[in-house]
Amino acid sequence: MKKKNTVIIGGGAAGLMAAIFSARNGRDTLLIEKNNRVGRKLYITGKGRCNVTNNCDVKTVIANTPTNGKFLYSALNAFSPADTMSFFEERGCPLKTERGGRVFPVSDRAGDIVDTLFSEVKRSGAEIMTSEAGSLITDEGRVKGVCLSDGTEISAEKVIVATGGKSYPLTGSTGDGYRFAREAGHTIIPLRPSLVPVETEEHFGYDADGLLLKNIAIKVIDTKKNKCIYTDFGEAELRRYGLSGAVVRSASAHMKDMESGRYRIEIDLKPALSEEKIDARLVRELTASKGGRYIDILPALMPKALIEDFIKLSGIPADKRCSEITRQQRKDIGQLLKCMTRTVTGFRPLEEAIITSGGVCVKEISPADMQSKLMKGLYFAGEVIDVDCYTGGFNLQAAFSTAYLAANS
């Protein structure tokens, strides 16, 4: 039987960071990853740029962690966003801070983040094994090691489960960690998608499918409470099923207890313009095209792929002469530019989510060291824990911080 001090299951953000600090502490460390390369999910985060953390203080990270944020207090104080930034920059991966404190590699290449972590794992002396963990080896309330799917047993004093959630299964996040946790007696909080596209009652046409709306604003209205629960500015993507894009994924994290029809998204196509300024522009466009048709002025106001849907929503015939557009119709056009409404019917599948909400119950994990309260020697790190954050680099920071604490305990 192969013997190690520490075995880490999962070669994602949390697993790689845990391997680095475990080995640097002098422990004989083995990292088990079932994919043929580590960090596969990191490659696709931030649209391939990798929003590695947020340039903020601990309090701000916790404020941006709606699910069990206080659980991260010790982990974040042990390894803060500033520590994450120093970690990468000191190893030759320069970073930059963008809107909202989002931190990216200067190169805009997620591969640079993965390469830095992988190189540091090798430098630390930790071993990486390409294999699949089948089950935990336990005895009398203590973890004793890991049994691989081929039956090979590896003994260990300490096992860190860093398998990620269940989103993006093609990257290896297939929920194995929840099974290991259940084997050890842990409660798994029901899984649901977070930072995920939404399906809407109103569907966009073929021409608009995949259209990226830039520099727009959104409001999310909870019709059950009759209040605005979220606002944002940035990019949204129109899909035949509904809406995607950065602002929509962020908004999804605020849609608790999802019910069809409960949430309404209002899209402002012209957030920089007041209704008065839009009306003045419409007057100019209509005046300049008196002999033209209503449809002819719309390319100056929006992407061409959106025009067909916009005309349907406005209720004005496409071939109506500009000179015949009434004052009320002009007002309706302006209001629609400021507020295109979409009724949310539900989330897209968990497999399309960036983050899995739910996971190993935090009440059964010690926040001081990430060790199981039910099974000695068993630790958890990263997305497998029932902690999820808003977009902006906070989820990766939570992964790094919990991994650091688990490795150093």
Write the layout of secondary structure elements.
Blueprint: E1 2-9, H1 13-24, E2 29-33, E3 53-54, H2 58-63, H3 73-78, H4 81-89, E4 95-97, E5 102-105, H5 110-124, E6 127-130, E7 133-139, E8 142-148, E9 153-161, H6 176-183, E10 188-194, E11 198-200, E12 211-222, E13 227-239, E14 242-244, H7 246-252, E15 263-268, H8 275-288, H9 294-297, H10 307-314, H11 327-338, E16 340-347, E17 355-360, E18 378-380, H12 394-408
Parallel strand pairs: 1-2, 1-9, 2-6, 9-18
Antiparallel strand pairs: 3-5, 4-5, 7-8, 8-9, 10-17, 11-14, 11-16, 12-13, 12-15, 13-14, 15-16
Q: What can be said about this structure in brief?
A:
The protein is α+β, with helices and mostly antiparallel strands.
Description:
The chain has 409 residues and is of the alpha+beta class. The chain folds into 3 domains: 2-193 and 357-408, 3-Layer(bba) Sandwich (FAD/NAD(P)-binding domain); 198-269 and 341-347, no CATH class; 275-339, Helicase, Ruva Protein, domain 3, CATH 1.10.8. The chain is built from 12 helices and 18 strands. It has helices at 13-24, 58-63, 73-78, 81-89, 110-124, 176-183, 246-252, 275-288, 294-297, 307-314, 327-338, 394-408; strands at 2-9, 29-33, 53-54, 95-97, 102-105, 127-130, 133-139, 142-148, 153-161, 188-194, 198-200, 211-222, 227-239, 242-244, 263-268, 340-347, 355-360, 378-380. Strands 1, 2, 6, 7, 8, 9 and 18 form a 7-stranded mixed β-sheet that branches. Strands 11-14-13-12-15-16 form a 6-stranded antiparallel beta barrel. It has a 3-stranded antiparallel β-sheet with strand order 3-5-4. β1, α1 and β2 (29-33) form a beta-alpha-beta unit. α1 runs parallel beside α5 (110-124) and α1 (13-24) runs parallel beside α12. The longest helix has 15 residues, at 110-124. It starts with a strand and ends with a helix.
